[in-house]
Amino acid sequence: MKIGVIGTGNMGRMLIEAWIEARAVAEQDIVITNRTMKKALDIQHTYPQIEVVANPEEVIQRTNIVFLCIKPLDIHPLLIQLAPYWTAEHCLVSITSPIAVEQIESVVPCHVARVIPSITNRALSGSSLITFGHRCAAYYRSYIERLFQTISTPVFIDQDITRIASDIASCGPAFFSYLLQRFIDAAVQKTNISKEMATELASDMIIGVGELLKKKMYTLPTLQEKVCVKGGITGEGIAVLEAEVGEMFAHVFEKTNAKFVEEVKKVHNQFH
């Protein structure tokens, strides 16, 4: 199976690197292109057997499955531009959340799927969110599921939870990286610990928490219970969090959903 990637920015590059590291796809079976060709050539410099082509048309002509790793509002114009090149045998995979698989199916003749990856997939970890179109054949469904099993835990989602699932699995690493950085900054500001040591300790801590959850040694509530001794120091810290976090995450989801709705409307106007 030959895989094409149109768009080699952060997520496109991440997928390529993860697949190769997991030995899910051989370098010579990947064909890529990017609007800024230097980004594609940089990937080829690291993986010399990857084929870089000049335009999206060549990607389609040389591959079976094509991943569109571009901005939501760039997808419809590109699909129309490439209309003469899609065939019923191709499988088109979008990685963007505001565009439903049914919308893409309405303008192309091929099999369609959507896979929303997470940056955690680069470490062959985390979830990937999969939705198949009605026309997507069983052999493509099976291949895509196996492909993402090598770098993640595939989770199949319906359209109605696309945004919140993406917030948790795909946006979550950025949200919690920000919180962890603020945690570190406060430690440095309020004590004599160096930023380097605080960063090392906090990073080791978050990795350790992940391992505890991965090995199912604790749930999130029981983990808090085990660390938080009644009347102890951790309890005082939890009391501050309970008082000050409040509706913060509800506001985060409200904001991301508002932006999602805005993009969905723009995409709807393009497809109609």
What characteristics describe this protein?
272 residues, NAD(P)-bd_dom_sf, 12% strand, Rossmann fold, single chain, 11 helices, Pyrroline-COOH_reductase, alpha/beta, eight-stranded mixed β-sheet, NADP, amino-acid biosynthesis, ProC C-terminal domain-like fold
Q: What do these coordinates show?
A:
Strand 5 (91-94), helix 5 (101-105) and strand 6 (111-116) form a beta-alpha-beta unit. With 272 residues, the chain is an alpha/beta fold. Helix 7 (162-190) packs antiparallel against helix 8. The protein has helices at residues 10-21, 37-46, 56-62, 72-81, 101-105, 138-149, 162-190, 195-214, 220-227, 233-245, 248-271; strands spanning 3-6, 30-33, 51-52, 65-68, 91-94, 111-116, 127-132, 153-156. The protein has 2 domains: 3-157, Rossmann fold, CATH 3.40.50.720; 168-252, ProC C-terminal domain-like fold. The model has no long low-confidence stretch (mean pLDDT 96). The chain is elongated. An 8-stranded mixed sheet has the order 3-2-1-4-5-6-7-8, with helices on both faces.
Largest sheet: 8 strands, mixed
Query: What count of structural domains?
Result: 2
Shape: elongated
Read across the widest sheet, the strand sequence of neighbours is: 3-2-1-4-5-6-7-8
Low-confidence stretches are none
The name of the CATH topology of the largest domain is Rossmann fold
